[in-house]
Design goal:
Number of helices: 3
Distance between the termini: 32 Å
Helix content: 25-40%
Strand content: over 45%
Mean pLDDT: 91
Strand order of the largest sheet: 1-7-6-5-4-3-2
Low-confidence stretches: none
Number of strands: 7
Length: 150
Amino acid sequence: MEKTFTYSTEIAAPIDTVWQCLTEPTRMQQWVPGLIQITYSGGQVAEGGTFDMSRKEGNRIRRASGSLPRVRPPEHLTMLFPSKPMDMDVVYDLTPLGPGRTRMDYKALIRPKGLLMTAVTVVFAVFFGKQNRKILDNLKTLAEGQQVNV
């Protein structure tokens, strides 16, 4: 059973600024809680590339690797996060709305593996939705030039 989480918002910033906040490692550390590091193959976000990231969650450091199957700067980014318990596809679509305004549409598709993970995903999705909304609000705040407390 797949679970989809979506979020859309308007950001009072140009699309290039939002893209930089979304993809540049030092900017990402300002809005993603616990992000220690993210690196891209070839040193940049590029279609067909890969990424490795590490985040501190409580007393643990979680590592994730994935791929970037579709990248169209500054309008589209797809990140795939494969793992043993579940796979997750994350899609960001940015649309310019005029001078200094951008619409961000976010979608996360969670695909659990196995019966147990399918049951757990229902509970996980509630937590994930609330947590991701806060993180995406951090991105908006940063792109709009305000201080973010992560």
